[in-house]
Design brief:
homodimer; three-stranded mixed sheet; Cl_channel_volt-gated (chains A, B); 4 strands; mainly alpha; about 700 residues
């Protein structure tokens, strides 16, 4: 907010000057030679005139919204498809390596573990070096940016490259990481870069309001081309990133997301991967009797349990980050060896999923995509057994174990994946948490569905027709409910319909998603809000819902009336007094005490820094000593960290490491405080040492 | 806008007084006996304490949002189901009557024509007498109300009753009318009444902002329980009624709409109409290969043609209203015989659809529901012929004619229904236009689909498998595209998926809907905006999309700087001067010329009326003569009509009849003008006559 304001102050003067100059210069400017071309004679003149007119027409069209949106959709579809291709190749390479070494278990283990470790370490290192801003999901940052805060380096080409390559490596490793959040970020960067590129041709891309609208559309494109789910993408991006949504922006999202999803799927058809355009995870549930009315309580149970599960996931994720941050010794060690933590986590997770080892009890050999395909399967595993006669025998086999049954495998899978996903998403690589949570939810739904199928082998319906229970439908419901609970969105329901290509389970899905949301929202913030808090991004929290008392709170009930302020013509002493008399972290700057026109705000620490750099050494020492005596040093240093995080530098990607510059400031202040606390004699002695 | 402002001014003083009184009365109020109950002794005391606590708990819960939303969903589901039941009974009665009289064509015709005429006439008369506000769709009015304008009598019990009964009769008549717009209105009235009812228990329902949020949720419920389409309902209501949408209101819509749709469908199951909860118009298209990539151009053609068709529909609808309004003689005659127009229109339409007559060429015997079921049918009519072996032979038979083929029937159906729907929706009964347009769109889609099937009998795909073209899929695409074009919404796509229970055609539907929107939005306003303009509701038009020049327009570029204003202490002469010097229809009212604090605005005609009632007859005549000389009478009378429509009375339901009060004012002014234009001698003579 204030970040933008100070920027606006700077540009305002320039704008005004430009306007005035424009008004003055109302006299017709001299015509360029190209404009006079129509009146010149010559053989090539008509051709050149025609070419010029075409050029002018194209340039005028470049400014249209739909050209921009089509270009954005096209680019993102290509990026998405290329990344999917690269990720699939990476995963195949691992499978091939693992399969080729089946003579020696140790070699197999080495291959299984080394491959993802190398990839994740490379991804972490590459991102760290090129653009630390590319780390993490990106949705929390987009949420902040769409509110109008300028986060530096978040929408640059460097970050784009870092995010695309880092994400491809991270997902190619087979860790339980998602690509949906990063895609939102990638699409936004794409839109920002595209608008900067197009502004070379026409001047219509410099309006800030329009850029924000385009970014909102880009978020929709990100989700849309990630899951080939245009409607769900638009809704999800609205729910996740906006508080107030301009409906006139709606069509932009739909247009771009549909185009992007279309191209994304057409590429698959052209590449002969598929025969025609269909859903990504197509299900084949029966249409005439999708579920019985009496199964609804089971769906409601899935919803409520998913709500608790989702809240637990958010809590666990935050606790892991906070634990790592609080352990000073671990923290300092890891800060030196930045790549150790990712490598360690990857090592642990890939060791546990090693198929001949513990992985055999949790279908460890399946990739995320295969897991989803099997979970949405039409068969009833518990009753009919894993069918041997079907062509997808290979991947369904993973859920069968000779010494345990399907239920145990599912429970182990859910429990292990739960903490693994929560841990893996704290690795400082570009990654999201949507897909892992989605898979866990599907597994939980499948578990409930299999239990129901075992309980009612011939279905609940007691009429003439026997309609067996479809556990795959439960998996769909569970996936939507858990991902909805973690992200606090209802539109996961729509995403699920578009992913599976079937909408027959609409009522169970909606009921489960709403119940999951109700439970999760009353327990924990959404995953994105949680990350915003952890990273201390400048963001006003939302009021939440269902609390009618909030409707009668007025601004005057909570506002502070006696605020100390800085005037334009105040003295050093006035400043000092203001700093002493208030503990506010931001001081308002007004024109004068009489007019009280607000010019902006200044950070307390900035004032402090300016004061200490401007005052003479003697007076500075004296002033600082007073300052130290009047306040404890801790708050000062704490706020200096926050300044660094909030201020010019922008938050660092790695959530639990304070950024390096901030650390130096921190130590610097600490030294000063210590220096001032000791007596002059002692200080001298220490300096001699 | 200004309507609310003047109201606010009135209530502001009361609010402030109440606040001050509250602050003064901070001394503890005397405890009521019930609060002291816990400390009294006696045998029944514990029971009574417990009962009181329960009561208090319930009362505190009544204030919660979700209680309200559940109640709203429940009531609306019951209303929707009961109305559907009544409408189905009405339609069956007509069919039964028509079927019973098959011995005599004349008697059959009489029965076929009289029945709808009586129903429509009753509906029109009943609505006119009880609450003229219930006439029409209701969405334009809700759009205006949600912007904050207070329209009187639009959310009352009387209007509710008139709308429910009027709509039931209107739809029961079998005319091409829709129920989706009225349902939005009914749900909003339901919410308003419910919140007034619940405020008897708790005091949380008096907040205006909250009421508006609840109304927005109610709009979603209206669409949701009309089509059993919760997601589409929420999106449609957002697109149609909002410009800026508060995302925190999102869950409310989803919650209430889902609950409502659930109850609505459960009622059908309990009533043994259906075996389990499924879609309303379930389709059974094949899942593995829904459409070929090479069919997409055909879908795009449907989209573009629907765009033109939708714009034409809106244009036609408006022209009919304007034509009826402009024909003074027809207008005056119809104003006296208000019920003649509805009866006449019904007579014409039902005569044309009479099955043994012209109706045999346009499947006239089918109800709207049957038409949709047949159009979404899985068979290919042109190639396979209307299948005889299927159980729904009865209704499919209507499309087959021995002396013509399916294409002719479809073309005749589309052309006839097009103007019939445009005409029927101008009848002053509660009715919408969504469903008729939806049906026409489906028929058009079917036509294209059948043509494609005839062109490519074995499908386009030339691989090993033969996938035939599914004309039903084209019908779905056409329905979504045309209704999207008429209403300028994208969410008809989602409604279509929920209505048919299949999402496999998502990409064709999205492409067609977006293309239809692009074409229609560049040609005409949406149907609702068109009605808003016809009814002259106070509503700021939207900027529209795709015009980047609008981004660089500043307020100062279009604002008027030298505005004449009225001060609190101005004299009659000042007022007169202001009226003479400006032609603005609204005059700003400021505190004083020095402070220039805006207090509100006043209509020019109101000032004129006040002036003429306050001034003495002599001076009034003089002043009016000056006024007439300086302005032409036409503008005055025109603005007086607008005042009546905009002002206290609210717009009348019947779109092309100026409201009666307005008419009297109109004539009054006309007389005055004429009186003033004639010389005193002539006037006296005329008065003697």
């Amino acid at each position: 907010m204030y970040g933008r304001y100070t920027q606006d102050l700077g540009t305002f003067a320039k704008d005004e000057a430009a306007r005035l100059r424009l008004q003055e210069g109302d006299t017709p400017r001299p015509r360029r030679p190209s404009e006079l071309l129509e009146y010149t004679q010559g053989r090539c003149a008509p051709c050149r005139v025609c070419a010029l007119q075409c050029q002018r027409f194209l340039i005028s069209k470049v400014g249209e919204d739909w050209v921009f949106l089509i270009l954005l959709g096209l680019v993102m579809a290509l990026v998405s498809w290329a990344m999917d291709f690269a990720i699939a190749t990476c995963l195949q390479a691992q499978k091939w390596m693992y399969g080729g070494l089946d003579t020696n278990v140790l070699l197999q283990y080495m291959a299984w573990v080394t491959y993802p470790t190398v990839l994740i370490t490379f991804s972490a290192g590459f991102t760290q070096i090129l653009a630390p801003q590319a780390v993490g999901s990106g949705i929390p940052e987009m949420k902040t940016i769409l509110r109008g805060v300028v986060l530096k380096e978040y929408l640059t080409l460097k970050t784009f490259v870092a995010k695309v390559i880092g994400l491809t490596c991270a997902l190619g490793s087979g860790m339980p990481l998602g690509k949906e959040g990063p895609f939102v970020h990638i699409a936004s960067m794409c839109a920002a870069l595209l608008s900067r590129f197009l502004s070379l041709f026409g001047g219509f891309y410099e309006n800030e309001a329009r850029n924000i609208e385009m970014l909102a559309a880009a978020c929709a494109v990100g989700v849309g081309c990630c899951f080939a789910a245009p409607i769900g993408g638009v809704l999800f991006s609205i729910e996740v990133t906006s508080t107030f949504f301009a409906v006139r922006n709606y069509w932009r999202g739909f247009f771009a997301a549909t185009f992007s999803a279309f191209i994304f799927r057409v590429l698959a058809v052209w590449n002969k991967d598929e025969e025609t355009i269909t859903a990504l995870f197509k299900t084949r549930f029966r249409l005439d009797f999708p579920f019985d009315l009496q199964e609804l309580p089971a769906f409601a149970v899935i919803g409520i349990a998913s709500g608790f599960g989702g809240a637990l996931f958010v809590y666990l994720n935050r606790k892991i980050v906070q634990f790592m941050r609080r352990q000073k010794t671990i923290n300092r060690f890891l800060m030196k060896k930045r790549l150790l933590f990712p490598a360690l986590v990857t090592l642990i997770i890939s060791t546990l999923t090693f198929p001949p080892g513990f992985g055999q009890f949790m279908a460890g050999q399946l990739t995320q995509k295969d897991t989803l395909v099997t979970l949405f399967d039409n068969q009833t595993w518990a009753k009919q057994g894993i069918s041997d006669e079907f062509e997808y025998l290979g991947i369904l086999e993973a859920w069968r174990h000779p010494r345990s049954n399907v239920f145990v495998t599912l429970v182990v899978f859910i429990l292990m994946k739960f903490w693994m996903s929560a841990l893996a998403t704290t690795i400082p690589v570009p990654c999201g948490a949507f897909m892992p949570v989605f898979v866990i939810g599907a597994a939980f739904g499948r578990l409930v569905g299999e239990s129901m199928a075992a309980w009612f082998p011939d279905g609940i319906h007691t009429d003439s027709n026997i309609y067996r229970i479809v556990p795959g439908g439960y998996a769909v419901v569970g996936a939507a409910a858990l991902s909805g609970a973690v992200t606090h969105t209802v539109s996961t329901a729509v995403i699920v319909f578009e992913l599976t290509g079937q909408i027959s389970h609409i009522l169970p899905v909606m009921i489960a998603v709403i119940l999951a949301n109700a439970v999760a929202q009353s327990l924990q913030p959404s995953l994105y809000d949680s990350i915003i808090r952890i990273k201390k991004l400048p963001y006003l929290p939302e009021l939440g819902w269902g609390h009618h008392e909030k409707y009668s709170v007025r601004v005057e009930d909570i506002m502070v009336r006696d605020i100390r302020y800085v005037t334009l013509n105040c003295k050093y002493r006035d400043l000092q007094q203001v700093l002493h008399s208030t503990k506010m972290k931001n001081l308002p700057l007004v024109e004068s005490a009489e007019s009280m026109i607000l010019l902006g705000s200044i950070e307390r620490t900035q004032v402090g820094a300016l004061l200490s750099s401007q005052l003479s050494p003697q007076r500075r020492l004296l002033a600082l000593r007073q300052k130290v005596l009047s306040e404890d040093g801790h708050r000062l240093s704490d706020s200096s960290i926050r300044f660094q995080v909030r201020g010019a530098e922008g938050p660092q990607g790695d959530p639990w490491q304070p950024p390096p510059q901030s650390a130096s400031v921190y130590y610097h202040h600490d030294k000063l405080v210590q220096a001032l606390k000791t007596e002059p004699g002692q200080r001298k002695k220490r300096e001699e040492n």
